[in-house]
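Possible regression after last week's pipeline update?

I re-ran a chain I had predicted before the update to compare outputs. Posting the input and the new output here so someone can diff against the archived version. Not blocking, just want to make sure nothing changed silently.
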Amino acid sequence: MARNAKKRARSQPPPPMPAWSGAAVNPDGRRRRSEVTRAKLCDAVLILMRERGEAPTVAQVAERADVGLRTLYQHYADAPTLWGAGFDHAVLTTLSTMPPVSADGTLAERIAGFVERRARVCESWGPMWRVGLRLSVTEQGFRDRIARLDTLLRARAEILYASELGALTPQRRTLVLDALMSLTEMEAWEHLREACGRDVEAAHAVWRFSVAALLAAAPG
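New output (post-update):
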């Protein structure tokens, strides 16, 4: 009987390991750790771009994020992929903080909101944008990212100024949108802030005036 008892005992499955033993891996916990590591790496890319005005090396990013090189390469295969992830992270993080675009409100209110949002993006993205433009010369991924972002910003402007644009011919609407995007591009903001030495509020005023003047002249 003792022999049979031992045989039965050997045939029983082992008891489950306690949760605190570390033997089992929680997929959600592992996914969360991966997301945290990716965010740290992306933040490090953006910080280094601001500080250096150029694309950082993989080693510099790993050091700033306090992440081992082996771990970094588990998430990003090479430097261009890492730079692109940092760019995407900045765009998505910024867009997630912006309110939905709406054509409601007076034109003056819509212009003020538009200028405030665009200026905030320009203030925070300036160094990253300059690096991205340089990378776009040789990296197709960055050319695609910049084109998508331009398309997105243009679409938001079309929604915001739907009332004013709706009265125009297709050709005139395209002309006005092209002018609006040119007036409020990143380089235009940097010209006001750096070349002209305007503070943020003065630069806001220039853009509000310019956008209002453009839309007033649009039906002509």
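Follow-up from reviewer: compared with the archived run. Confidence is low (pLDDT under 50) at residues 1-25. Marking as no regression found.
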